[in-house]
TrEMBL record:
Classification via CDD domains: CAP_ED
All residue ranges annotated as the Cyclic nucleotide-binding domain in the record: 62-152
Organism in which the protein naturally occurs: Hyphococcus flavus
Superkingdom of origin organism: Bacteria
One Pfam family hit: cNMP_binding
Coiled-coil ranges from the UniProt annotation: none
SMART domains the UniProt entry points to: cNMP
Protein name: Crp/Fnr family transcriptional regulator
Length: 243
């Protein structure tokens, strides 16, 4: 079922630039110009205002996938048994639904998916069947797709392992991503500490757990505050706590 037509009359990316935009989006990076041009010809650009519905719950049927050229989409996936909802954002140069388009997915899954525009956005809509036919005759595109899907699978497995870790461990792992060595004094530091709410979201824990983990880190002497950031006194210990 096709995405709803959008009422935006001022798209931020013109049709002429779709091929270039696709070329900056995995899994299309590095593809020959003719392949990018063909993908552009076979696609349809649509624009959405913030909050508009792309697919209402149960409307998406896997017949197409979406490439975000600008702005972001919000994808909601509801667990049919528990009612729990997972919300993911698909940002600029990211794709929603490619793995669904390339695989045989249980049709019941589609009844739990809804897609909305998180912000004003431009997207490219690609027909799944036509894309698979096109990719089947172009080794460079198929190779890129295989690499892209393999990376998604690896990231998914890593995410499962991370979410099974203790809350504090996940917080420390999130902090590690923010640490960089100061080129002047050689100290390991976080230039600007994320707020506890932001850190909690990154680690998949509640705000209290994030605050407690940071406090414990400072109390143990592994790090100390250097407003608005944090200086890590013992990187080996932080790595140990995060692993």
């Amino acid at each position: 079922m096709s995405a709803a037509t959008i009422n935006s009359t001022n798209p931020t990316i013109s049709d002429d630039n779709i091929a270039n935009a696709l070329g900056a989006t995995a899994p299309f990076v590095g593809l020959p110009g003719p392949v990018l041009s063909l993908l552009s010809e076979k696609s349809e650009r649509k624009s959405y205002g913030a909050g508009q519905t792309v697919f209402s719950l149960g409307q998406y049927d896997g017949g197409e996938f979406l490439i975000v050229l600008s702005g972001s989409l919000r994808v909601s996936i509801t667990d049919g048994e528990t009612g729990a909802m997972i919300i993911e954002e698909v940002n600029e140069q990211e794709i929603f639904g490619l793995e669904i388009a390339m695989a045989e997915i249980d049709q019941a899954m589609f009844q739990q998916i809804a897609v909305n525009a998180a912000t004003e956005c431009d997207i490219v809509v690609m027909d799944a069947a036509e894309f698979k036919s096109l990719a089947g005759g172009r080794p460079s595109l198929m190779r890129n797709i295989a690499i892209y899907l393999a990376q998604k699978l690896a990231a998914h497995r890593l995410n499962i392992e991370t979410t099974q870790a203790a809350p504090e461990q996940r917080v420390y792992a999130a902090l590690l991503k923010c640490v960089a060595r100061d080129p002047v004094d050689g100290l390991w530091r976080i230039e600007k500490m994320p707020k506890h709410r932001e850190l909690a979201d990154q680690a998949g824990v509640d705000e209290a757990a994030a605050a407690g983990a940071v406090a414990a880190l400072i109390q143990e002497g592994v790090a100390h505050r250097d407003y608005p950031g944090l200086i890590v006194n013992d990187m080996s210990r932080l790595n140990q706590l995060a692993s």
